[in-house]
Amino acid sequence: MKEYKYTEKKDTRSGFGAGLLELGRTNPNVVALCADLVGSLKMGDFIKENPERFFQIGIAEANMMGIAAGLTIGGKIPFTGTFANFSTGRVYDQIRQSIAYSGKNVKICASHAGLTLGEDGATHQILEDIGMMKMLPHMTVINPCDYNQTKAATIAIADYEGPVYLRFGRPVIPIFTDPNQKFEIGKAWMVNEGTDVSIFATGHMVWKAILAGHILAEKGISAEIINIHTIKPLDEEAILKSVAKTKCVVSAEEHNRLGGLGDSIAQVLVKNTPLPMEYVAVNDSFGESGTPEELMEKYGLSENDIVDAAQRAISRKQA
Amino acid sequence: MKVNPHNKSIDELKEVAAQVRRDIVRMVHAVNSGHPGGSLGCTDYFVSLYFKVMNYSTDFKMNGEGEDLFFLSNGHISPVFYSTLARAGFFDPKELATFRKLNSRLQGHPATEEGLPGIRVASGSLGQGLSVAIGAAQAKKLNKDNSLVYVLMGDGELQEGQVWEATMYAGGKKVDNLIATIDRNGQQIDGSTKEVMPLGDLRAKFEAFGWHVMEANGNSFETLLPALDQAKAATGKGKPVMILMDTEMGYGVDFMMGSHKWHGVAPNDEQLEIALQQLAVNEAADY
Ligand SMILES: Cc1ncc(C[n+]2csc(CCOP(=O)(O)OP(=O)(O)O)c2C)c(N)n1
Ligand SMILES: [Mg+2]
After folding, report:
1. Are A85 and A135 members of one domain?
2. Which of A5, A223, B16, B51 has the fewest CB atoms within 10 Å distance of its CB?
């Protein structure tokens, strides 16, 4: 099992803030919009340097999505910022009609996704956003795994023409990816090569998959770990190449089991090569208040849950 | 700086309007679906914008740099939008015959997906167009482009909350390169706006949100054109401009007027004949 050392922990939303700041310096068409959550979205540095390119919308997310769509018509590249819940469910129809169906170049940047938002509880912990966004034609869906990758993804999506949903989170987690990485939309990242089981993880679950990989190695199991940072378009080639070797699959995501990364992978398997697969995901429920770690434990999203799922998947392989 | 490519006289505008009204009733009749009521009521407004007031090019470019832009928020009145665009020169009026049919660029509600020239955003789900227009207006400001942005909304549409989010924004942030218009026909699907959900004192409401508010008769070029001129003159003064435009749903076809019943119903063969008699104009110009 490959060693991933880290010296620092940071939140992925700060990676977004850093990426946006850099875009402010390099791309004059980039503009930012926020619905009264500048601090939470780490947009302050961009705003300080580019006050004329920032639009404070107030607590009016539907209006924010419409204004963003309109800004693209004049050649701007708008990055909207609010919590993941208010970036998706709150404004689904606005995104659907004014952005996705209209093919508008809006970057919907969503923080505090999933359970790890913590104490605010289920009203704010959206676990359905990946599903809603991936179902929209034209939409690209990205969920990076650490600070560096989020920063790189933020920068990369400005150069891509089309609507993007960029999902990140609140808790501080290890920084283990290359600070100089070039982010390629739709290209899975090989975290660890292995032979016994393929673990496809996204977002905060990638670090947990690495922890699980070490536990599995101690048990003599060789896990292949792949970071699916882009859920749509899905890197089917990387998935099929991996499962051709391992013959069983675990998906890991901080999202509802229904409609997330796991379902996208299951579709690829069913169509090409039906194989045993286990989900590590929230089992069709809302979240609740608690610390991020407590919640990940209670809702079955710990490294041990990945280990158990891997062993179940392996045991289901045909002899 | 662009100019209006037609710049027609009032008599000519009346002729164009009759032609557009003929197109509308023929289009909805042909597919036995679509929305004639609001389309007929707003015909004079559309014809005024595209044949006199707005400065634009029919060589359509999405970014509309240096051009006045128009957004239709109440997308269900697509027939009047499509006919006006065709008659103004964005595409061949013959294409109006494909309205609402399979593989057409003229979708039931306006869309960009099929690339119809003149459409900049999809609409149909009500309440979104004002926000989009504000965004386009803000982009013009950033680009130092001093052309204008127009948007039309229905009066029933004002019941959508997003409209008021956008209204607060445009007033509060002084989006003064924007001219919004409400099609105040007093009708919506289930009845009059009074019955369904009273709109109250719209002038007072928009003024309270920091808008410059005007009123106009939308079914008379003699009063609508000067109002649109005054609206233009009111831009650039720190306030978005609102025209509360009184229209009659179904205007121009007597049996369609005065009720909400023709909001979204197509005329039958007999009714079409009567309507076309009332909209007499050069038949040879029909699509
Ligand atoms: C969000 C949304 N809700 C409901 C509808 C269905 N609908 C289409 S038109 C309409 C009435 C609109 O009234 P108004 O804006 O006054 O237009 P008019 O009937 O005068 O043309 C309704 C309810 C819709 N298109 N969008
Ligand atoms: Mg009405």
Report:
1. yes
2. A5
Enclosing H/E stretch for B269? helix B269-278
pLDDT in tens, A217-262: 999 999 999 999 999 999 999 999 999 999 999 999 999 999 999 9
Task: From the CA of B35, give the closest atom in ligand 1.
Answer: 21
Query: Are A94 and B131 a contacting pair at CB < 8 A?
Result: yes
Q: What percent of chain B has pLDDT over 70?
A: 100
Asked if residue A13 and residue A132 are part of one domain, the reply reads yes
Predicted local distance difference test score (pLDDT) of residue B36: 97
Residue B83 belongs to domain spanning? 10-285
Nearest to A103 among B112, B127, B138 (CB): B112
Domain count, chain A: 2
User: A63: which chain B residues are within 8 Å (Cβ-Cβ)?
Assistant: 131, 134, 162, 165-166, 169
Give the residue from A187, A281, A184 showing the smallest Cα distance to A234. Answer: A187
Q: Identify whether residues A235 and A286 lie together within a single domain.
A: yes
Mean pLDDT computed over every residue of chain B: 97
Q: Which of A34, A53, A93, A97 to mutate to test the interface with B (most CBs of B within 10 A)?
A: A97
Q: Ligand 2 centre from A121 Cα, in Å?
A: 41
Q: Which atom of ligand 1 is nearest to the CA of B109?
A: 25
Of the residues A56, A67, A101, the best mutation for testing chain B's interface (the one with the most B CB atoms within 10 Å of its CB) is A67
Ligand sitting nearest the alpha carbon of B35: 1
ipTM reported for the complex, 2 dp:
0.95
Mapped onto helix, strand or coil, the DSSP state of residue B178 is strand
Query: What's the pLDDT at A40?
Result: 97
Assign B284 a pLDDT band (cuts: 50, 70, 90): confident
Q: Would you say residue B81 has pLDDT above 70?
A: yes
The Cα of B258 is separated from the nearest Cα of chain A by a number of Å equal to: 32
Number of domains in chain B: 1
- Could you read off the pLDDT of A211-222 as tens digits, one per residue? 999 999 999 999
- Answer yes or no: is pLDDT of A112 > 80: yes
pTM here is 0.96
Could you read off the pLDDT of B245-262 as tens digits, one per residue?
Answer: 999 999 999 999 988 999
> Is the Cβ pair A73, B63 closer than 8 Å?
yes
Question: Which ligand does the CA of B76 lie closest to?
Answer: 1
In a domain, B2, yes or no: no
Q: From the CA of A52, how many Å to the nearest CA of chain B?
A: 8
In this structure, the answer to whether residues A41 and A166 fall within a common structural domain is: yes
Longest dimension (CA), chain A: 64
Nearest chain A CA: its distance from B165 CA (Å): 6
For chains A and B, CB pairs below 8 A equal 120
